[in-house]
Each structure stands twice: as structure tokens, then as C-alpha cells.
């Protein structure tokens, strides 16, 4: 997402500053992007980070007394409450819109009944659930992201820090540095030697995806949208189509013209049961023909 966003911002003649702690992404493709300046910054060092943002902003002519503001700030890496708080302290009053990239996994930190509610009710119930349970899930990623959202909704001064939250499902597309999608492709290609195991629990579970370049295009469009219409809201972004893991594998099979995929379905109740099912079904391993 990040590389594509930088590319389309550059193509639209925006002056771009991107900040990280020094990690190299995208095979250094970012060096080919015009109008893009790389800055090293660490939000864990709050005072130094705030000074850095103030310095870069002033260099771009952006101050609390000027009429110029950052057109948009995109936060792909905000993971902890303290990191978002640090960004708020450094940029309040200096931006037109702050776009926080969250995850649909925040619903896993809540009562599952919340998913069945309408969007307005979801927002209310999520906040109530978070307040009741405090730090119960603080060690989990979805809880961290949920705490970040809570900070934006409850502890920011809205008139000087307009924000939008984009909740993303599993992201697929170019320059995916997780390796998950690529691993599935290689596994399917080698499934005759290494069969794919799907337990009963996830066999019928629907998966949501979003294409990385679609998210980048949306981020660009947010700049020109009426901020009063979109600010202080969370949006779930995903394909309309939800598929199971098995259906996902079959789509890969069709795309790569693979004749067969070897799937091993078993009931995962306990370790002993898994071993039993494995030995019992190993001799009659089913081959699912795609041709």
C-alpha cells in the first residue's frame, strides 16, 4: 500500500515526506519516486520525534500561524496508543486530515454480538466494551489498534485534528512483505508432496480481503473529499465478496492452471484427535480435481 500511495501522490505532484525508523521497504523502489523525502524518526522517542515533525513542518512553511497545512497524514505503522498520541501532539493544528490505518481484527477484541449490529450501534458497543474490559486484551494486536482508535475518538481535540479511520481486512497486492500470499501459492504448487490441512473450525469461515492499490487510491481521494462529511468516522474497507479458505485456494489453482490441489480436511478438537484423524485419513487422502 505504502509504495503505491507514494507513487500516485508523486504522479499528482504532491510533495511527500515519509517517516520510518530506518527499515528499507519495497526493494528501494521508493528512491525512484520524485518529490519524495525520506526521514528517520522514532515515535518511541517522543520529545525528539515532536521536534523533528515541527522542524519538517516549518521547513515546508507549515506552522500554527500560517494558512498552510499538511494535505494529509497517513499512518500505516501506528500500533500502540502512545504512538498515536505522539503523532497527535506533534501534528495537532497542522493537518487537513489524519488517516489512521486500522484493522477489522479490532472486532475480535469485542463481544461477537457486536458484529451483528448496524454500523452506528457497532461504534457505541465497541467503545462500551473497551471501557468495561480495560487492558484485558492489551497484549493482542487487535487490542492495540482498538486502543489507538479509542484515543482518537476520546482524547483528541477535533477541530485541530480531523481524522479518518480505515479498518482493513487481509491486504493482498504488490510488495506484500508478509509473504503470506506467496507462501500459499508455493504450498499449493507443492501440495502433492505437502498436502494442505484445513481443520473443521476454519473450513467454512469466510475471509475478507482488500487490494493494496485500491486502498492507496482511496487514500488519495480522501484529500479532495469534504472533510466535514468524512471526519471523525471509521470505515470498513473490503471486497464485497467473502470466500472461504478452500475457495481462496481454488481461485489460486485456476489462475496458475494447476491441475490438482491436495486438501486434507480434519476435525481439530484436541492434539490426540488430530493425530488420530491424520493416521486414519492418510490412507484415503482425497484429491480434489480442478480440471
Automatic annotation (TrEMBL):
Pfam families the record matches: Epimerase
Keywords, alphabetical: Membrane, Transmembrane, Transmembrane helix
Entry annotated with the keyword Signal: no
Entry's transmembrane regions: 248-269
Record has Cell membrane as a keyword: no
Residue ranges occupied by any NAD-dependent epimerase/dehydratase domain in the UniProt entry: 2-238
Protein name: Nad dependent epimerase, putative
Amino acid at each position: 500500500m505504502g509504495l503505491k500511495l507514494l507513487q500516485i501522490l508523486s504522479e499528482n505532484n504532491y510533495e511527500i515526506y515519509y517517516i520510518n525508523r530506518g527499515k528499507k521497504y519495497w526493494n528501494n523502489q521508493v528512491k525512484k519516486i520524485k518529490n519524495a523525502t525520506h526521514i528517520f524518526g522514532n515515535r518511541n522517542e517522543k520529545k525528539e520525534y515532536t521536534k523533528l515533525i515541527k522542524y519538517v513542518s516549518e521547513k515546508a512553511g507549515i506552522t500554527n500561524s500560517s494558512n498552510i497545512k499538511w494535505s494529509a497524514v497517513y499512518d500505516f505503522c501506528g500500533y500502540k496508543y502512545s504512538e498515536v498520541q505522539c503523532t497527535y501532539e506533534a501534528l495537532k493544528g497542522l493537518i487537513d486530515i489524519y488517516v489512521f490505518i486500522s484493522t477489522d481484527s479490532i472486532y475480535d477484541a469485542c463481544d461477537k454480538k457486536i458484529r451483528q449490529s448496524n454500523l452506528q450501534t457497532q461504534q457505541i458497543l465497541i467503545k462500551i466494551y473497551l471501557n468495561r474490559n480495560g487492558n484485558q486484551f492489551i497484549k493482542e494486536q487487535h487490542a492495540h489498534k482498538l486502543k489507538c482508535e479509542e484515543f482518537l475518538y476520546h482524547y483528541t481535540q477535533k477541530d485541530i485534528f480531523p481524522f479518518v479511520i480505515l479498518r482493513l481486512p487481509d491486504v493482498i497486492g504488490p510488495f506484500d512483505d508478509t509473504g503470506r500470499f506467496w507462501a500459499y501459492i508455493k504450498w499449493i504448487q507443492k501440495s502433492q508432496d505437502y498436502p494442505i490441512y484445513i481443520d473443521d473450525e476454519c473450513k467454512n469461515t469466510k475471509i475478507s480481503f482488500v487490494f493494496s492499490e485500491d486502498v492507496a487510491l482511496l487514500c488519495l481521494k480522501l484529500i479532495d473529499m469534504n472533510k466535514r462529511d468524512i471526519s471523525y468516522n471509521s470505515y470498513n474497507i473490503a471486497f464485497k465478496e467473502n470466500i472461504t479458505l478452500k475457495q481462496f485456494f481454488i481461485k489460486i489453482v485456476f489462475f496458475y492452471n494447476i491441475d490438482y490441489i491436495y486438501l486434507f480436511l480434519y476435525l481439530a478438537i484436541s492434539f490426540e484427535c488430530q493425530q488420530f484423524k491424520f493416521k486414519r485419513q492418510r490412507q484415503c487422502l482425497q484429491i480434489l480435481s480442478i480440471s
